[in-house]
Amino acid sequence: MRRRTLLSALALPLLPRIASGRDRPAVVASFSILGDMVTQIAGDRVRLRTIAGPNVDAHHFQPRPGDAEALRGAALVVRNGLGFDNWMDRMMRAANHRGPVVTATEGVTPRRMPAHSHGHSHGHSHGGGGGGGGGGGQRMVPDPHAWQDPRLGALYARNIARGLAGADPANAAAHQAAGEAYAARLEAIDGWIRQQVAGVPEARRRVVISHDAFGYFGAAYGIRFLSPQGVSTEAEPSAQQVGQLIRQIRAEGITAVFMENMANPASLERLAREAGVRVRGRLYSDALSEPSGPVPTYEAMFRHNVGLMVPAMRGDAA
Q: What share of the chain is helix, strand, coil (3-state, %, to 5)?
């Protein structure tokens, strides 16, 4: 018995070492959509920390001390850029992070929007062309919500895969292959959305939403999004803006009115009530749901949102 135990002990070093969590590179993503993209590409080959998690408004996120601490050992940081998650830059400076950073929007030609109220006032067209209006001499800023176009989401995926490959050379080929496969799925979603929207008459492609997060989606699919808020969830619409939007809803017979998962529903519900329409559900724009919710992934976000928007634009009974 003692001899067998000794032989077993001698054989232990010959067994393959099982990789622990500490052996995997740590990746930090700024918000839930980017966190899901990292997961779809890298899976369990990395240790992921997402700072602004499900149903969290990343526009004006206030990091906690422990969030900056997570950056100290990060092999890779993934941020959106275009002014969306500037708090991530402050965190990196506080943590003295000098490692690689992926800006997911690298290569995106951003839409532009007026800077007042942190973005558009309501009533501007967000369909058709990709550039936004001139704003009458107003200062223009980039629209950061580029992920709302799945073709740009595919660009995000390739940027992230390239960053993962550089930060984790042992799995570089796997990251690149997974990134390409994921990008192809997102490009296929683009085709599916076009088929769905084609069933809506152009005159009815109007959607009212809490804040201006769907400009890239509208430009890609010819849908006009109207918002009482600007690009920022902190911007408060004026009574004049709300009144003008109510008149527009009535005049154009708009039936697609939605709240967002992060927004306070009270103001939009009041607007819908005064316009004589019904809020048709909850869209996801800047954050995913919890894993058990309706939008646990970026891909699920498109299927959920389009599944609500298309019948509402047509005026189908809910």
A: 50, 15, 40
